[in-house]
Amino acid sequence: MAASSRAQVLDLYRAMLRESKHFSAYNYRSYAIRRIRDAFRENKNVKDPVQIQALMNKAKRDLGIIRRQVHIGQMYSTDKLVIENQEKPRA
Amino acid sequence: MLLRTSWRLMAAAAPAALWPRAKAPTRGLRLRVVDHAPQSAAPSDAATAPEAESVLRPLYMDVQATTPLDPRVLDAMLPYLVNYYGNPHSRTHAYGWESEAAMERARQQVASLIGADPREIIFTSGATESNNIAIKELEAAIQPDSSLVSVMTVNNEIGVKQPIAEIGHICSSRKVYFHTDAAQAVGKIPLDVNNMKIDLMSISGHKIYGPKGVGAIYIRRRPRVRVEALQSGGGQERGMRSGTVPTPLVVGLGAACEVAQQEMEYDHKRISKLAERLTRKIMKSLPDVVMNGDPEHHYPGCINLSFAYVEGESLLMALKDVALSSGSACTSASLEPSYVLRAIGTDEDLAHSSIRFGIGRFTTEEEVDYTVEKCIYHVKRLREMSPLWEMVQDGIDLKSIRWTQH
Description:
heterodimer, B: alpha/beta, Aspartate Aminotransferase, domain 2, Aspartate Aminotransferase, domain 1, 2 domains, 5-stranded mixed β-sheet, 3-stranded antiparallel β-sheet, 12 helices, 10 strands, LYR motif-containing protein 4 (chain A), Complex1_LYR_dom (chain A), ISC_assembly_LYR (chain A), Complex1_LYR_LYRM4 (chain A)
């Protein structure tokens, strides 16, 4: 498989953020969005293709986890938290 | 290509609508918290608007009592609750082998977090059982000159970090066993059982975003520390803790430890920032607030504040939108002030005024700000009603008062 291109990395980043926004629990949702942003930002200057591939593979596994856990969270969702009506949590 | 894209867009946009999901019935305690946000569907609800209170859950700021499961932990556990349900001690079939493999992988994950060998990790039902095993060891090895030092790594009420490495070195030089209850510290601050000369360590799953009902005890092999089993039976866990090892729970503990190892630095940085924000904002807006515990040697995620002239229980009740605690959950049924606060020399009246704020991996800045705002508001309100506060405002020194008996 060819080394991950910039476009692929960005696609994965967007896919992870998009999926994370569907967490029904406020704390999981805000954590996932924040963590994904910080992790991609932290690694944006990595040059070694082997390391990039390893990070991408881990991110893909994490995307799978997010998808499954979003699904489960929605099935078992409960009432919102007191601060959820006052602001739309994004970070 | 266009068709696939549009399907994917549809799937992303309305996941709930696409396939009917059986939603589990809500079992949450339905608190009547009035929702002050402007109602969007106003006209049709006009008749019921005065009674239409949405039910909202409080913020969770009590991570020292317990922590939510990290989604990564639940994801690791589920296969063992659905399909891979074998007994890890069954030697004769694939169900047993796969369960055992998962158990040993979890053991390695726990060991790796504290710098131990997997053979030194015994799974238990939690840190309390681990503590009991460690203390019982003292009874078992009773000799006139043998003893055990047992210290909490991070205190659960005031967040103080004990000088574990120093204590470990002193104990090792005096040939005294050293046990530490690291329930609040594992995965939050770096721990190494060899550098810190720890002989026994208790680990709790539900304090580190893992499941409840599981923990571990670390028992040093070199030099060998002998322990006596608390529960006897089939000889599992090297005879030190009989009973079928609960694979789903230990897988969860292992996953929690692995995630903690990866996230320790990130979490610590963020939690420190949020803790500083909370303390600074409260102390800026309210006088006579004391932080309990040594500020130098302190785990940031556990903030214990005393608000003078305000009764702790009433403040807790007032802050009903935020899940908080004063003192530790394990003794919260009694009304006595915390023994920890008494031990550090806190005045009786300040000890009754203490609240513990817990900041964890999933705490947000918005939650901290909301908590701070409510806390400031209610402390001011309660102080307005307090005759003691009134006397202080008038310049009376409360210590000089002679309270007479009626």
